[in-house]
Amino acid sequence: MTSTIPRRLRTPLAVTAAAMLVAVACSAPGADETAPPEQAGEDAEGPGDGQEDTPTGEVPDIDADAINVGVLAPTTGTVAASGQDMLNGWNLYWDEHGSSVAGREIESVHEDTAGDPSTGLNKAQRLVGDVGVDMLVGPLLANVGLAVAEEMNRQQMPVLLPIVSADDLTQREQLDWVLRPAGWTSSQTTHVLGEYVAEQGYERAVTICNDYAFGHESCGGFANTFTDAGGEVVEQLWNPLGTQDFSTYIAEIQQADPDVVFSEQVGADSVRLVQAWSSFGLTDEIPLFGNDTLLDQSLLRNMGDEAIGLQSIGRFTEGREAPATQEFVNAYLDAYDELPSYYAAAMYTAARWVAEAVEAVDGDVSDGEAFLDAVRDVQLDDSPMGPMSLDEYGNPIQDVDLRRVERRDDGRLWNVSVETFESVGQFWTYDPDEFLDQPVYSREYQGIE
Amino acid sequence: MTMEFVFFQLLNGLSFAGLLFLVASGFTLIFGLMRVVNLAHGGFYLVGGYIGLTIVLATGNIWLAALGGALAVGVLGVLMETSLLRRVRGQELPEVLLTIGVAFMLGDLTLAFWGGDPRAMPLPDYLSGSVDLGFIGYPRFRVLVTLLAVAVGIALWLLMSKTRVGAIVRAGVDDREMIAALGINIRLVFTGLFFFGALLAGLSGVVGAAFLGLVPGESDIEILLFALVVVILGGLGSLPGAAIGSVIVGLIDAFAKALVPELAFFTLFAPMAIVLVLRPEGLLGRRA
């Protein structure tokens, strides 16, 4: 997900965050006890999440012989729940497989970005400067990811982005030190969906997406291939992040009278749209197709019958029958008593990616460029998300599923695979050079001629 | 724009107004007598919603949830009034800062207790689904929210204008010192009113949980913002003002999002700014 916080909420949220910082700093007894003396003072403000044996808000003792991985994930703030999923997935891999790779210990050091670009950048700086990490993995939000990626690229620090999906990071504005193992571009999956929906015989689509970069890119992917395959986009609605009441948009959709609707939403907006869709009785009237985030497991956990039967496109399908997926899903369920979201699956897969790359360089990550080359060369024949490898731009070629929400025997909702599209790249079937000559998807450019 | 579309948006606006009135009425009641701008009202709403949600998940009974959420938050309000607000009575800035502090604490506590995932209140079958209004179908729950708001509004109006309690409260709004001099325990009245205002916030939180869903740190702030616009428009402390303000904000929200989506927030705040310039006391407020 590449959400950003609505501008009007930033100030109150910042104050909230400040209040939280104080609360966390005050409520972490003994946080300073094991910290190196020279760092104890400046750590007082850091609400880090307890990761393995790292107490809250402190820089752990660093094993000089270990490979240190800085993990950036928000565990406070509005996206804290998904940030926790990221950590859960990442930790599960090392718990299962042991943290020793090629004779070296992999030490993960988590820092909380709080979902804020400047906090994220500060924490990244600290991981690099004070802790001396060998690479950074994460974060969650696109604005945080962009801030971290640009600065760390300047400092020649390897940055791996399994979640941040801003299209241009592996398209028109590639950074040498930034790769997306187990990652994606926002429009990578929706390209598949647009063509699929057109091939099902739907002709008139309305799109409703969040009015910011992730929404524009997700929607652009759908609109581009849907219209190329002969469909017509009759109306595009852009709702602000944090839309409280979807009834107005429902009315507009009904008025436009489409035969299919595509929607990208994140977080609470997903829950509200799905709720509104059902309460206004559209479930049986107009087919709704979602992007990855609309019906991600992180939201399905808190949805009810209204979500059953809804279809979406996605690169992780927790109900996929493949053994690699089900082993991961069951292990995650045992460990955390919930089904994994794509945040968890991508971080789990990224952990394996890192392990294989470290193996390939025989545990020597001192040469950052050589390590990144090893990351580029990793080929996962199978993973919870299916086979994966990076294209020459640093973004995975991966399987994408059309998914449908069903209820499991244990009562939980999950996505099952309806159809799998293999080896999907970020440019879909377009020629990369021609594709890159077009501007990045935006509200103005949706790939509709 | 077809007639159906206009009618549909009218219903959307009015049902949203219903929720807004439930939130704003408690807010404006407290302000009217106590002159406290209770910025923890959004936090009360959020806590009410979560308690309601927990009760629904445990018992499946939405009415029990509404009762439990409302009462629990009413008690929370009493605790806040007696243990915190009473100490800074009459000092405006400390009062407001105190309520902000409580608002943040409530937001963080809900995050700690119920987690950061957005939640939605499941509704029983007889409340979900839609009613046939002749030429369009409309969600039953939203219709009920509108009716509930009207019923609460009428009950509040009767309470304030026909009962002794209402008379005391109205007299208190006009002249607090006089009321105290007449031998009425104004402290008790304050606490009682705070209980009642918080109770309404808790009830609206349960309704809002089914209407809009719950997100800690977001739902509370957004609803507080809407409530502030409503009461500033209608006049701080005025119940009829809260009703009119709710309807105006609800309708503007519905039609502006449809007609000028880029300006949805501008159209919400512009009328408030105009009212503040031309009639600082609000449409139905009285000059202080």
Total strand segments of chain A: 15
The counted number of beta strands of chain B is 2
Structural class of chain B: mainly alpha
Largest sheet features of chain A: 9 strands, mixed
Low-confidence stretches of chain B: none
Q: What is the highest CATH level, the class of the domain at 186-320 and 400-437 in chain A?
A: Alpha Beta
Q: Total helix count of chain B?
A: 11
Q: Low-confidence parts of chain A lasting 5 or more residues at pLDDT below 50? A: 1-57
Fold-level CATH name of the domain at 186-320 and 400-437 in chain A: Rossmann fold
* Percentage of residues in helical conformation of chain A: 25-40%
CATH architecture of the domain at 186-320 and 400-437 in chain A: 3-Layer(aba) Sandwich
Descriptive keywords:
heterodimer, A: 449 residues, alpha/beta, Rossmann fold, nine-stranded mixed sheet, six-stranded mixed sheet, 14 helices, disordered N terminus, B: 288 residues, mainly alpha, two-stranded antiparallel ribbon, 11 helices, globular
Give an overview in words:
- The complex is a heterodimer of chains A (about 450) and B (about 290).
- Chain A is α/β, with parallel strands linked by helices and about 450 residues long.
- Chain A has a domain at about 185-320 and about 400-435: Response regulator (Rossmann fold, 3-Layer(aba) Sandwich), CATH 3.40.50.
- In chain A, about 40% of the residues lie in helices and about 20% in strands.
- Chain A contains 14 helices and 15 strands.
- Chain A has helices at about 5-25, 35-40, 80-95, 115-130, 140-155, 185-200, 215-230, 245-255, 265-280, 295-300, 325-335, 340-360, 370-375, 430-435, and strands at about 65-70, 100, 105-110, 135, 160, 180, 205-210, 230-240, 260-265, 290, 310-315, 380, 390, 395-405, 415-425.
- In chain A, the strands form 2 sheets. In chain A, strands 7, 8, 9, 10, 11, 12, 13, 14 and 15 form a 9-stranded mixed sheet that branches. In chain A, strands 2-3-1-4-5-6 form a 6-stranded mixed sheet, sandwiched between helices.
- The longest helix of chain A is centred in the first third of the chain and has 20 residues, at about 5-25.
- Chain A is globular, with a radius of gyration of 21 Å.
- The model of chain A is unreliable at about 1-55 (pLDDT under 50).
- Chain B is mostly helical and about 290 residues long.
- Chain B has a domain at about 20-215.
- Chain B is about 75% helix and about 0% strand.
- Chain B has helices at about 5-35, 40-60, 60-85, 90-115, 140-160, 165-175, 175-180, 185-210, 220-235, 240-260, 265-280, and strands at about 130, 135-140.
- In chain B, strands 1-2 form a two-stranded antiparallel ribbon.
- The longest helix of chain B is centred in the first third of the chain and has 32 residues, at about 5-35.
- The radius of gyration of chain B is 19 Å and the shape is globular.
- Classes of the chains: A alpha/beta (about 450), B mainly alpha (about 290).
